[in-house]
Specification:
With 66 residues, the protein is α+β, with helices and mostly antiparallel strands. It contains four helices and three strands, in the order αβββααα. Helix content is 38%, strand content 18%. The longest helix is centred in the middle third of the chain and has 8 residues.
Length: 66
């Protein structure tokens, strides 16, 4: 987790979901919400950077398979 924790920036963002590490940098920078009133979504993703966000991911994306 120490290596993942170093990747918590808008231009370098990794998260852990169910024990798997994902580089979500491109997802973040291309996510809808930048420059709009819905910026809370990208900011929430950014706040999860460098962490194990498994529970938050599953709470929000119940339909997702990855």
């Amino acid at each position: 987790m120490a290596e993942v924790a170093a990747h918590k920036y808008v231009d370098d963002l990794w998260v852990v979901i169910d024990g798997r590490v994902f580089d979500i940098t491109e997802h973040l920078v291309n996510h809808h919400g930048w420059g709009t009133a819905a910026i809370s979504t990208p900011l929430s993703i950014l706040a999860a950077g460098g962490t194990d966000c498994s529970q938050d991911f599953h709470d929000i994306h119940r339909w997702a398979s990855y």
